[in-house]
From TrEMBL:
It is found in: Cell membrane. GO terms for molecular function: ammonium channel activity. It is a multi-pass membrane protein. Residues 28-446 form the Ammonium transporter AmtB-like domain. Keywords: Ammonia transport, Membrane, Transmembrane, Transmembrane helix, Transport. InterPro entries: Ammonium/urea_transptr (IPR029020), Ammonium_transpt (IPR001905), Ammonium_transpt_CS (IPR018047), NH4_transpt_AmtB-like_dom (IPR024041), RhesusRHD (IPR002229). This is Ammonium transporter. The keyword Transmembrane applies. The keyword Electron transport does not apply.
Length: 473
């Protein structure tokens, strides 16, 4: 029998796996938050997109989201994470580097903190591997949100080329500038959990991509009924509940600020959904399920820049605003402004993410409470313009930061897509667009005959996809 006073090798391994600086509660919450954010993309947005689009595009839309979720990971650990949260290369860009070595990943995570002028490093109470996974989920969700603007016509091959290029040359710039120690970070711009880095970025880039890819077929643009609203609601529900980790994980600890962020998130989302629904009933005489989903999303997006920085009453106000202004831009302005009519933004990502993200950033610049700001590790000396001593400085900083994020994404996304266009078409052929999923993947979302046996389309038969003898069911 082994001497009880001498730790076994297994016990020594356990001791090494739990260093003195590790806080198990913080580490567990951060990994749970990362998983919740990841579930927003897969399966949340995957099945939301699959349900919201026309039947012939259900599979293609889901696959675009699924591919992006997977494709971001190798980009992230091979160069993207350090470009976003590593050492400075330019004031708006970090140096690329590997995030796969054991020594790097098991070491204590480090996050920049700032007092406006002097930037120092703040250590977190869990390993860097946890932070890499958490931030990966945000990057993956951002590019999936962007996909909502180009569903129903973008070539899947062009999308496969676009995702790693966009993460490298667009997303990483916003992430480093606002979160990773770049010039907007040092300037004191507030973006608690990605109103700018995720939502304004995806909205601006998505609208730009929709412009370059071109519109859907006229028949699809004029008539694009969702093929499964119950499926869309399931995806929306995962998205909503996943936001608990999206905003609750950004204090980087299981603390008081995290609790405030979670509660404010759901206050704003619920209020926005109700307000959007009221506008639908007032003007269109019926509540819309799609409208309710849009209102939910705009509320979640709007609160994101200030989730742990504003008081509960401010979250209510932000919900009212986010259920009103994006509703107006989507339901009224989009039918009047020539540019919004010309650019075919399939799911209205410009309105639900870009407009709502700008609103959230601006309102955070007004309502961020000094005490709540002091609880957040990266902006300890900040306050909204609404409070004594705030002046109008923070509000204008927020607008300047929004301008930079929009400008960079318009330019970078345009260059990426024009470069891809030199090699391959950005959109499917008209014949493929008429057919949909079967042309793009040789598969369809639903078996509509018998007990699940496949009904081979004429397109599949013409291209030799049908076996000589179909298997019995």
């Amino acid at each position: 029998m082994a001497n009880a006073s001498v730790p076994s090798a297994y016990q020594q391994g356990l001791i090494d796996a739990v260093p003195d600086w590790l806080n198990k509660g913080d580490n567990a919450w951060q990994m749970i938050s990362a998983a919740l954010v990841g579930m927003q993309g897969m399966p949340g947005l995957v099945i939301l997109y699959a349900g919201l689009v026309k039947k012939k595009w259900a599979l293609n839309s889901a696959f675009m989201a699924l591919f992006a979720f997977a494709a971001v990971m190798p980009c992230w650990v091979l160069w993207g994470y350090k470009m976003s949260f590593g050492h400075k290369l330019l004031p708006f860009w970090g140096k690329a580097g590997l995030a796969v070595s054991q020594d790097f990943l098991i070491a204590q995570a480090v996050l920049p903190s700032t007092n406006y002028k002097n930037i120092t490093a703040a250590t977190l109470l869990y390993p860097t591997a946890t932070m890499v996974f958490f931030q990966y989920a945000f990057a993956a969700v951002t590019v999936i949100l962007l996909a909502g603007s180009v569903l129903g016509r973008m070539s899947i091959k062009a999308w496969m080329a676009f995702v790693p290029l966009w993460i490298t040359f667009s997303y990483s710039v916003g992430a480093f500038s606002v979160w990773g120690g770049g010039f907007l970070f040092q300037w004191g711009v507030m973006d608690y959990s990605g109103g700018y880095v995720v939502h304004l970025t995806s909205g601006a880039a998505g609208f730009t991509a929709a412009y370059w890819v071109g519109p859907r077929l006229r028949e699809d643009r004029e008539e694009f009924p969702p093929n499964n609203l119950l499926l869309a609601l399931a995806g929306a529900g995962i998205l909503w509940m996943g936001w608990t980790g999206f905003n609750g994980g950004d204090p980087f600890a299981a603390n008081v600020d995290s609790s405030m962020a979670v509660l404010n998130t759901h206050i704003c989302a619920s209020t926005s959904l109700l307000v959007w629904t009221c506008w639908d009933v007032l003007f269109f005489k019926k509540p819309s399920v799609i409208g309710a989903i849009q209102g939910m999303i705009t509320g979640l997006v709007c609160i994101t820049p200030g989730a742990g920085l504003v008081q509960g009453w401010a979250a209510l106000v932000m919900g009212i605003v986010s259920g009103t202004i994006p509703w107006y831009t989507m339901m009224v302005l989009s039918r009047k402004l020539p540019l919004l009519q010309k650019v075919d933004d399939t799911l209205g990502v410009l309105h639900t993410h870009a407009v709502a993200g700008i609103l959230g950033g601006a309102l955070t610049g007004l309502f961020a409470h000094p005490h709540l700001c002091s609880l957040f590790i990266t902006i300890p000396n900040s306050r909204g313009s609404f409070y004594r001593g705030g002046g109008g400085v923070q509000f204008w900083k927020q607008l300047v930061a929004a301008g930079f994020i929009i400008g960079w994404n318009v330019v970078a996304t345009s260059i990426i897509l024009l470069a891809i266009k030199l090699v391959m078409p950005l959109r499917m052929s008209d014949e493929e667009l008429k057919i949909g999923d079967d042309a793009a993947h040789g598969e369809e979302a639903y078996a509509l005959i018998g007990q699940g046996q496949r009904e081979y389309t004429q397109h599949a038969r013409n291209n030799g996809a049908v076996p000589d003898e179909e298997p019995s069911v």
